[in-house]
Amino acid sequence: MxxxxxxxxxxxxxxxxxxxxxxTAIELMVVLVIVAILAGLSVPVYRDHLLRANRGEARAALLxxxxxxxxxxxxxxxxxxxxxxxxxxxxxxASLKFSTTSxxxxxxxxxxxxxxxxxxxxxxxxxxxxQNRDSRCRTFxxxxxxxxxxxxxSNAANDLECWSK
Length: 165
Prior knowledge:
Layout: H1 14-17, H2 25-76, E1 83-84, E2 96-97, E3 107-115, E4 118-125, E5 139-143, E6 148-151, H3 159-163
Parallel strand pairs: 1-2
Antiparallel strand pairs: 3-4, 4-5, 5-6
C-alpha cells in the first residue's frame, strides 16, 4: 500500500471534502417556512401602516378646503356649499373653485352645510379606492368652528384615532 500523497496547498483534503456537501432539502424547507412566516406577519402590518398614512390626505384636503372657504367668505361675505374644480370662484351664484377629490383621489370632498354663519365639510373614502379598506376612519368631518370628527365603517365616532398623528 502506498502512502497518501501530501496535501496540496489551497485544496481541501479528502477528509474535509466529505464534510462539505451543501444544504439538505429539510434545511431548505425550514428556511422557506421561516421566510413565509415573516412575510405573513409583515405584509398586513405594512398595509395597515399605509392606510394610517393615507389618512393624512383627508385631513390635508379638509384643512385646504377650510382655507378656501375662509378666503371665499372674505370676498363674498358668505360661505358656499358648491365646489367646482373647473369654474372660477364666484359670489353669484356662490361657487368655490376647489377639487371635489383629494390629491391622490382616495377621498371625495363635499361641503355638507354652508350659510353666512359657518360651514361643515366631509372627506369620505371612495368605495373603489384602496383607502376604503380603512374601516377605522372612513369619513372625516371639519366645521368652521374647528370641530373635527370622524366615523368608522359602522358610522360610529372615532375622532381621536382618526384626527391624531
